[in-house]
Amino acid sequence: MKNIIIYLLFLLSGISALIYQTVWQRVLFGLYGINIQATTIIVAIFMLGLGVGSLFGGFLSKKKNLLLYFSIFEGFVGLFGFFSLKIFNTAFQFTDIITGFNLFLLSFFLLILPTSAMGATLPILTEYLIKKFNNIGQSLGILYFVNTLGAAISSIVTALFFMKYFGLSNTINIAATINIAIALTMLLIYIKETKGIKA
User: Fold this and answer.
1) Structural domain boundaries enclosing 79
2) Three-state secondary structure call for residue 62
3) Which of 15, 55, 59, 96 has CB atoms 3.0–4.6 Å from 154's, for a disulfide?
């Protein structure tokens, strides 16, 4: 039962991640304008952050308290999400004097921390489940499936429903709320496990 809850939480994590990518890309078009170069740069920064986070998560996966780390990263993403549009709007104040490569760097620094936190969650959770199942293929395969499924669901729902009826700000708040709920639920699982081990 606990494993099913963990898979469900990671599916929700995939949903929130795609909401962020969709909304942040829409907002950052204000920096770049809407063109293929803008889309490429924003997606590239997003994927870079996920990659950096995966490396860091791989390092942390060798340690104990994996669910606690997962909870911290999800909570950070949620907190950043709540304030992200205000942070981006503040950045827009500099767009008249920042151009070219410096504009790329600005976007990089806006996105690198939250996207890295997102990327760190997969190796951490994979290692946790490997210790439970002793099967890397099963652990990684199921997690990747549910996370990708969540992203696929989100790509449809976000564009056709959330942004249409709730707007960008409320849509981001939905994603951030999901992350905070994931973080708190995983923290409760971690506390329950820790008490069980001590007992």
Assistant:
1) 2-198
2) coil
3) 15
Structural contact between residues 158 and 171, judged by C-beta atoms closer than 8 angstroms = yes
Query: Phi, psi at residue 72, to the nearest 5°?
Result: -65, -45
Residue 87 identity (one-letter amino acid): I
At 99, phi and psi to the nearest 5? -140, 170
What pLDDT score was predicted for residue 100?
A: 66
Q: Which of 86, 159, 165, 84 is nearest to 118 (CA)?
A: 84
Q: Which pLDDT does position 199 carry in this prediction?
A: 45
Cα(17)–Cα(57) distance, integer angstroms: 16
SS3 state at 97:
coil
> What is the pTM (predicted TM-score) of this model?
0.90
63 φ/ψ sector (left φ>0, alpha ψ -120 to 50, else beta): beta
Residue 117 contacts residue 77 (beta carbons within 8 Å): yes
Contact 19, 171 (CB under 8 A): yes
Q: State mean pLDDT over 85-103.
A: 75
Find the length of the chain: 199
Q: How far is CA 164 from CA 25, 43, 80, 160, 180, in A?
A: 16, 22, 23, 6, 24
Report the domain count for the chain.
Answer: 1
